[in-house]
Amino acid sequence: MRALLSKAIGGPDTLEMTELPDPVAGAGQVVIAVKACAINYPDVLIIEDKYQFKPPRPFAPGGEVAGVVESVGEGVTGWQVGDRIMGTIGNGGLAEKIAVDPSRLYRLPAERSFAEGAALILTYGTTIHALLDRGHLTAGKTLLVLGAAGGVGLAAVELGKAFGARVVAAVSSEEKAAACREAGADETIVYARAPFDKDQSKALAEQFKAAGGKTGYDVIYDPVGGDYAEPALRSIGWEGRYLVVGFPAGIPKLPLNLTLLKSCDVCGVFWGAFAARDPAANNAHIEHLFRLWADGRIAPRVTEVFPFVRGGDAIAKMAARGAIGKLVVEVG
To answer: Which residues pair with 263 in a beta bridge?
Structure first.
């Protein structure tokens, strides 16, 4: 089989297409013939050794896949050859086949494509945990989403609307703003690209405040970080919740006096650890997502599909923060 491997620390240009032996399903495993692999920002970080988890090299990036069960190992029940699956696997998805623990898999609905299936679980799983468990978002609240045109950003826009919130989507271009309005955002903000000086930071805070209204935001969803974080925090409402999701723009340093003045919470969101620590609660969230998906209230937006030989290009586009919605590599 072919696999796109990281053999040395570096960017997407260091990935190598390599022939490997087909995997064999061990006890408690199934082998998946991968059909599609979604690309997410952790795929950028993991090959640069900047992610929380550092798998031993060589390894294939790609933590979110859809495909077909090819073989079933000893002791596995509930799965059989030919079942269509989707799920998150940490890494290894940019390979034609992979042996995995089936507890990380879900059944891909017959009416959904492999590309759609590969694009749902990670972004929406992260976001439903963030908004409900960490943000306590309820109907009638106001939600600000930074980086709102990316995979997790659009998931936050859609889920925010599904939960009855007023959603303000902040992005870096009018093209991205249009995508957010199509996803249901009530209002959009187009901000400049960082870095910001003091005056620019203050101006961005005023932009956020103007869209948030007199009472400010009840929940701020931040998968961006960097110079965008402090201006956003300045626009939060009394006892609001600031959700820390990711840092493609850099790790910010927040002035903690702002949390005192607004009596607000800064809440970390680590979905992978949550799912591992409380699988029952995570599975309940995933079932909720499947219901919303079936009802047409959420739908992953796959905006570009790359052939397997250009898997590195998909990661490069993600690294450049040029993606709108989800990027998917067609593997099988």
So the answer is: none
